[in-house]
Amino acid sequence: MTVVVLFRSPTPKPKEDEYHKVVLRENGMKPFSIPVLSFQFDNQQQLVQKLREPYHFRGMVLTSQRAVEAMERCVNDLISREVWKNTLRNDWQDKAIFVVGQATAKAALDKLGLESTGHEAGSAEALVPVILHSVRQGHDPLLFPCGNLRRETIPTEMEKAGIPLDSVQVYRTCADLNIEQSLEDLIKEKIFLGNGFFTQQLQINEDRFLLGMLSISQGVPSYAVFFSPSGVNFTAEIVSSFTKWWSKVELVAIGKTTEQAMKNKQWTVMAVADQPNPQALAQCIVKSMQCSDTAKGEEK
């Protein structure tokens, strides 16, 4: 069975994580997740003030589930669900709510009750024309709750179009402190022991060169999937320390931006999911597997 390691941010709801896993399993893969990011929320009072004044804005741009989570925290802790549900939500829903990706759209609906536009856009670049089609030049800004690692695509394009953007940093992205241990434990326990390769627990201080050789001899794991540039940057040094495994694993990117971050590390990217959703990920891995099988067949 093809083993897929997902290097990703932690999901607020385990079911969402299972969603990826179920889709991959349906396609004959055995997935494992390793959280690589953690988040700290900032400027809650500033965000609350803006959420209380929807009449100052003509809409909102949400490019991540974490931005939605920051808003939800403000609603729960500083505004109240009742006030949000009875007044503010309706006021904001009368505005244009733009999102990147299906996951962000679902989070906005589930956590805030906000329907949105742009879920088919898998990146900030793809969302820009959606915004420009709906919004014209004017004085009232779009509210843009974002993280410390935000890209400048949307601010730059809005400035070019004469559309004001009110950006508020509402969270910071940090490296998960347990990436290294999680990967080591996964290779030792989940993959080896879980497949019956060993009858007793390997020692934690086992040589990584040996771990890599053992993983290759068993043919697992086959794919490593990266979901964001920050995930790439936070894990690059760690994954490369598992020398033999890392030299053989096939690398998959979620989106062009993540692909570029991987290429900047001189990594060879075998497949790219064009949308940040489970189906697109499964499809691109299956296609990569088929291409690999075809190439092997031609070599024989």
TrEMBL record:
Pathway: Porphyrin-containing compound metabolism; protoporphyrin-IX biosynthesis; coproporphyrinogen-III from 5-aminolevulinate: step 3/4. Transmembrane segments: none annotated. Its EC number is 4.2.1.75. The keyword Amino-acid biosynthesis does not apply. It catalyses: hydroxymethylbilane = uroporphyrinogen III + H2O. One of its GO terms (biological process) is uroporphyrinogen III biosynthetic process. GO terms for cellular component: cytosol. Residues 23-282 form the Tetrapyrrole biosynthesis uroporphyrinogen III synthase domain. Gene3D superfamilies: 3.40.50.10090. One of its GO terms (molecular function) is uroporphyrinogen-III synthase activity. Catalyzes cyclization of the linear tetrapyrrole, hydroxymethylbilane, to the macrocyclic uroporphyrinogen III, the branch point for the various sub-pathways leading to the wide diversity of porphyrins. Porphyrins act as cofactors for a multitude of enzymes that perform a variety of processes within the cell such as methionine synthesis (vitamin B12) or oxygen transport (heme). This is Uroporphyrinogen-III synthase. It comes from Acropora cervicornis (Staghorn coral).
